């Protein structure tokens, strides 16, 4: 939605408390009051901003992982969620604001749940492909790996925005590679970044 | 500080927007206005609440890891940060509210930075002990492991509060064990939970 596309980065930059609806509208180039019919409150706007960045992330995942499978696809998936550039750092700032509100707002929590379920399903599918291709070492529980990756990619929204000197794009990629190489059977094709691209 | 001890759980439960200073004071059993001289704004109270839960976590870590070293100490350290019980779930809710404010408040960001540095130093020390004791497999970069664990334990504050059906205490412990067993040299004493306790 055009209004959301025009406003989410303003919210990301200023914080959800940092601007009034009037200021957000003005800064986005809309007439004062233009947002009100669609987003009666900033909380509504934040929910749409979260859905927008979630969809935008998924569109990128679809693009970069076309043709990839198994560990290579899992890596691409994580790269699009990890805050590895300015756009994704802005997305992280929306996620953090959204989480805080979701703690006390059941509707926001439900949307978050459905969104994360979609990511979990994708991860389980990629792990299955990886196992079928002989890329994974034995003895791993999918639940542990999927749960661990979900926790890592969500945690990276925090560490990348608040501890950037230790969680730069290069460092986050390296942390991910370290984990993937621990999961991989020795000599697996997707175990080393770029090998199957 | 007594006022913080009496109020942080109220903030955790109701959210930082969910109550006025007056309501927080009343619910904590103080006279209306009692908080004001110490915490002029809710934002001040939130900073003290964050510092309080950070110190409380560190006090627990000190207690449980007395006498432990290497991977066993690293495990205990993570257990006290992971939201594995009601008290630590409340702590997670304070952390999430605090992160959101820290995105646009340099003082809050600086306190977060100092706090996380303290945890990073502890993790580097535990890894060194683990390596010296022959508990770690070869080829691991400490930067990757420390960065990965920090990202995981912070991410768990989100997944435990917002996706509890996939990140219950048992599941979080299992995710951590899965990772520790991937780090460990085969047969290392601290590789299996409880082995060195």
From TrEMBL, chains A, B:
Xref: Pfam families: TetR_C_6, TetR_N
Keyword RNA-binding found: no
Protein name: Transcriptional regulator, TetR family
Alphabetical list of Gene3D superfamilies matching this protein: Tetracycline Repressor, domain 2
Keywords: DNA-binding, Repressor, Transcription, Transcription regulation
Gene Ontology MF term list: DNA binding
Feature: DNA-binding region: 20-39
Organism superkingdom: Bacteria
Domain HTH tetR-type span(s) in chain numbering: 1-57
Keyword Isomerase assigned: no
């Amino acid at each position: 939605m055009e209004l959301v596309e025009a406003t989410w980065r303003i919210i990301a930059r200023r914080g959800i408390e940092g601007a009034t609806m009037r200021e957000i509208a003005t800064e986005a180039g809309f007439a004062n009051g233009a947002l009100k019919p669609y987003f009666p409150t900033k909380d509504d706007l934040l929910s749409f901003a979260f859905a927008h960045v979630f969809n935008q992330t998924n569109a990128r995942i679809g693009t970069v992982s076309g043709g990839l499978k198994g560990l290579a696809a899992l890596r691409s998936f994580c790269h699009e969620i990890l805050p590895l550039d300015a756009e994704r750092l802005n997305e992280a700032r929306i996620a953090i604001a959204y989480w805080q509100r979701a703690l006390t707002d059941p509707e926001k929590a439900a949307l978050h749940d459905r969104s994360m379920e979609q990511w979990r399903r994708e991860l389980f599918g990629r792990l299955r492909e990886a196992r079928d291709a002989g890329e994974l070492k034995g003895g791993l529980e999918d639940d542990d790996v999927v749960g661990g990756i979900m926790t890592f990619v969500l945690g990276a929204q925090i560490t990348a925005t608040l501890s950037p000197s230790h969680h730069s794009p290069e460092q986050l990629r390296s942390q991910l590679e370290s984990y993937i190489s621990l999961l991989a059977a020795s000599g697996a094709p997707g175990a080393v970044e770029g090998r199957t691209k």
